[in-house]
Design brief:
Number of strands: 4
Structural class: alpha+beta
Radius of gyration: 18 Å
Strand order of the largest sheet: 1-2-3-4
Order of helices and strands: HEEEEHHHH
Shape: elongated
Strand content: 5-15%
Helix content: 25-40%
Largest sheet: 4 strands, antiparallel
């Protein structure tokens, strides 16, 4: 009907995207931010809360696992085998580390369904941009 709509999952910058670090490793869990429980426990993100092997430390105890932080920094598209040669790698940045762990058992193993959804989302966004460019060129 000619009315504009806004759909979050298609709000993509197909020209440049975010900064290089974000394109390589995505959300930055365990590095750019962490989740802290009411008990002071520190986890890489809210989706890792309660998974003991991903407890990074505790605020009250003054502990923080720098090696785990570094391991998350190394979890990028070139350290994830399925991502290295993927055409969409700089848009999904290897997917959500928590989803990869939850569904695949490893932060470096891409969750296949998430990959398929991301690629379809990108294909649709590219199509929408192509249509818009064609309309403005007329």
């Amino acid at each position: 009907k000619g009315k504009k709509f806004n759909f979050f999952h298609f709000m993509l910058d197909l020209d440049q995207g975010p900064c290089a670090i974000k394109r390589l490793r995505g959300c930055g869990c365990g590095n750019d931010y962490v989740a802290i429980t009411p008990d002071g426990d520190i986890f890489p993100c809210h989706q890792f809360v309660g998974i003991d092997e991903y407890k990074m430390g505790n605020i009250d105890e003054g502990t923080f696992d720098q090696e785990m932080k570094a391991d998350f920094a190394r979890a990028h598209v070139y350290s994830k085998p399925d991502c290295r040669d993927c055409w969409a790698k700089f848009y999904c940045s290897g997917g959500c580390n928590a989803n990869n762990y939850q569904y695949m058992g490893d932060i470096r193993t891409a969750h296949k369904i998430s990959c398929q959804l991301e690629k379809k989302r990108l294909e649709c966004a590219i199509m929408m941009k192509a249509v818009k460019m064609a309309e403005t060129a007329e």
